[in-house]
Specification:
45% of the residues lie in helices and 9% in strands. With 503 residues, the chain is mainly alpha-helical. The chain has a domain of 94 residues.
Length: 503
Amino acid sequence: MICTLCLSACSDLLDIPQHGVLDYNTYYQTDDQILSANVAMYLEVRGWEFNAKLCKAMFTDDFWAGGSMRGDNTDLEHLNEFTFDAEQDYIQAMFTTFYTLIYKANVILGHVDENGSEMARMARAEAKVFRAFAYFDLKTMWGNPPLVDHELSPSEYNVPNGTDEQLWGLMEQDLTEAISSGALVEKTSVNDKETWRVTKQFAQALLGKVYLWQGKNAEAAAQFDAIVNSGKYKLFDDYETLFRIENKHNCESMFESNRVHDDNDSFQNFSMYGLMTNWRMDKMNWPSDTPIMNTGWGFRVPTKSLYDDFVKEEGVDGYRLNCSLKTLDQITNELGITLKSPVIGEGYFMWKLRILASERGMGNDFVYAANTLWMRYAEVLLCGAEAHLAAGNAGKAAEYLNMIRTRAHLPAKSTVTLADIKIEKRLELFGEGTRFQDLLRWGEGSKMADNGKEYPLLQVNGQVSWVSCGNPTYGFKSGKHEKLPYPATEIRLNSALEQNPGY
């Protein structure tokens, strides 16, 4: 991808009419020109939603691949069952989009004057944050991907694997410089719903995660504390409506990608991810007044394991549970929805990230103007709790964890263990793209050891039957799946890139 990206990026980097050849050495001189490059980074991140969100969901014990029936999408099944190889399209696409963002950040950092206008300085600071954002996912899922910190000349296209020191070091440097630059915006107050750009506090949250993943716990805790002490964020009061369109950029949002509702511009609001992950409605009988959008392909189906952890912590009537998942009995009794044919699953349906009929674009199921939420304040508190606990400050860890539990209508804990933090993180953030990297960091990939052995088939009467997947090998394998494979295309094009073990 690095090679192919470098060869093709000149033609697809920005949607700017080009007459003749664009000279990058002279182009990025005005604020309008700089803004066009800056916007390209935001659009690239928004495009991550489909591949990154689906891949990260599939790699966990929170979801079944789902679909109409087995074989509906074999690529997602291979991800979910750990039967993928280096030719896997979703992994290739995810890898490519991360490096595309890095390329766009490098263009800005290579051509925009660091002593230029306010727009120039902000664009450079944001480019450093975005580059670190991409490298965090690359590092934590692939291990030692190539480090590309500038636009490559043809003689540099074969880039070797980066080292831990190089990769973590670049992320630390980028984020530290961006935070101290004074060029990143900040919310004006906790009630500010207008600030949509990358903020100083989002950069601090990323830096905190970079430190936490390295075991630099005191440094991590300091970054999360700075966000808490800024007073610019708080937990949104109503978990039930936290993810609704009307609550975009609420007090809990650290960073999200924008979509503007426009029924006349389907492409602007195109969301294949939303349609892919909404309930499998052709398998259901649904009343005409159902609040749920009546179209969906039913991928990313919640597991009983996830539901059981909710019940163990909150009980069957738990506030956060009932804002997050619904059982077949609940959607039947509360919404009048019944099954008309079997569907993959154990009888649990996503409620937290549901798509409402009222949020569907006029006459077009692909038009869905919900923003893509990349990080929220709850994650800051949970990472802060973990960092403080590891650094020996159990009191502060309990304080942060109990803020999450209070919003979930749960009693406070007087003492906190790492196990407490792990379970809260699973329940609070499921479906938001954090669990796979957490499980890798905690050495708990074995939770997916049986993924792919068999799959559940929910019958019309509510009973669940189990069907063999027919895989000769399946599930998370220690010594292999701690790292994703570098796409085969990259290995073929980059002779200096060493493939991860087992692929």
